[in-house]
Amino acid sequence: MSDCSSSSNNNGYMRALVAACSLATACAFHSRTIPATTKVGTSALKVAVDPTVVTKKEFQDICGAEFDADSLQERLKATNLLYPKHVEVIEDIAPIAGAMVDEILLETGEKAWQPQDFLPDLSKEGWEDEVKEMRKMIAGVPDDVMVVLVGDMITEEALPTYQTLLNTFEGCDDPTGDTDSAWARWSRGWTSEENRHGDLLNKYLYLGGKCDMRNIEVTIQHLITNGFNPDARKDPYRGFVYTSFQERATKISHSNVGRLAGQYGDSKLRKICAQIAGDEGRHEKAYQTFCEEILKRDPDGLIMTFGDMMRGQIVMPAELMTDGKQQTLYDDFSAVAQNLGVYTAIDYADIIKHLVQRWDLENIEGLSSEAEKEREYICKLPERYRKLAERSMNKKKKVNEEDPKRSFSWIYGRSV
Ligand SMILES: [Fe+2]
Ligand SMILES: [Fe+2]
C-alpha cells in the first residue's frame, strides 16, 4: 500500500480529501490482507490523512463513526427480527449449513466443471468444425423444445435476483458481502454453482444460431429489473421450503429438456442439461436437509409454514418475464413446457408428495393440536393435487387443440 500513501504536508484537510478520493480509486483492486485490528471502512482515509493535521472531529465529519472489526460485525447483525425463534433455529443448524458447503457443493475452481468444458475452444485450431458439428446437432431440435430451453436459460440468467432473495432470509444473510459465517458461505457457494447454468446455456444457444439472442437478452434484462417475490417474507423457514420445492422443479425441467434434446439427436445438449440437472439435484438435497433439521428442532413451526405456503401457489422464479412485446409470454412459455411434458401440474403434485415423504410427515409425532391438523391437511395434499392436476391438464389439452399456435420473439416470431 506504500505507493498509494500521500506524503504528509500542512495543506491539511482538502488535500487529504482529494488524496483519499484518488487513493480509493487507485487501490480499489489491490489485493488486501486485513489484520484483525483493522479499522473497517476508514482504512483508506487513514492512509491518506496525516493524523497530525486533522482533528478527531474533522476526521469523524468525513468518515462518520469508526468501529473496529469486531464491533462492526456486531453492529451489522440484524436486531429487529421478524422471526427471532426461526433465527435461533437457523443459528443452531449453522454447522450443518457449513457441512453442506463442504460436502454438497462441489469444489470451486480447477476441479469444478465449467461451461467451457462443454463448448468449443475458440482459441484452438479446428473450432470452426466443432461449431459446425454443434449447429448440425441443434438444428434437429424442434422449436417447441427450443422455446422451453430458452425460457429455462432466461430463468437461470436472473440469478442476481435469487442471490438477493437468499440474503433476505433472516439468519442466513451475508451482511458484508464476504462474511465468514456458514450461511453466508452457503449463499455465495450456491450462487457460484448456479452462475454456470445460465452462462453455459446462453453460450450454447448463441453458438447454435437458431435463436434471436437480442430478444432473449431483452427478456433477461426485463426479468432482472422486474424481480421476483416468492412470498418468503424474509422468513428462513418459508425460504427453505420454497427452495426445497424449486430446486427439484428445475431439476425435473432440465432433465426433461435434456432427454428431449437427446431424442432429437443433440447429444451435446443432452449432456449439458444433465450436468445442470445434477447441480440442481445436489442443491435440492441441501435445502431439504435444512428443512429436515428445522423439523427436528421446531416441528410445529415448519409444519405451520409448509401448510400455509401450500394454501397458495408455489410461483416459478420467472413469472415476471417479458420481452416487451408479448403480453402473455410467461403463460405461453409455461403452456409449451406443459404440452411437452417438461414441467407439468402433475410434477407439481409429485414434488409435494416427495417433500411429504422426504420429511416423513406421515409419521411425525408430538405436534400441537393446531400443527397436527395442518400435518393431516398436508399429507392429503399430494393425492388431491394430482386429481386436480389431471383434470386441469385435460382441460388445457382441449384448449391447446383448438388454439395450438403461440409465436415467440426468441425464435424470430416463429410459432410453436
Ligand atoms: Fe440452476
Ligand atoms: Fe438450482
Structure summarized in a few sentences:
With 416 residues, the protein is mostly helical.
Commentary on this structure:
The protein has 416 residues and is mainly α. It has two domains: 2-75, no CATH class; 83-411, Ribonucleotide Reductase, subunit A (Orthogonal Bundle). The chain has helices spanning 13-26, 43-48, 56-63, 69-76, 84-92, 94-103, 127-139, 143-157, 159-166, 182-208, 213-226, 236-263, 267-297, 299-311, 329-340, 345-358, 369-402; strands at 39-40, 67-68. The chain has a two-stranded antiparallel ribbon with strand order 1-2. Helix 8 (143-157) packs antiparallel against helix 12, helix 8 (143-157) packs across helix 15 (329-340) and helix 16 (345-358) runs antiparallel to helix 17. The longest helix is centred in the C-terminal third of the chain and has 34 residues, at 369-402. 33% of the residues are buried. The structure holds fe (ii) ion (FE2) (2 copies). One fe (ii) ion binds at residues 156, 194, 197, 250, 280. One fe (ii) ion (FE2) is lined by residues 156, 194, 197, 250, 280.
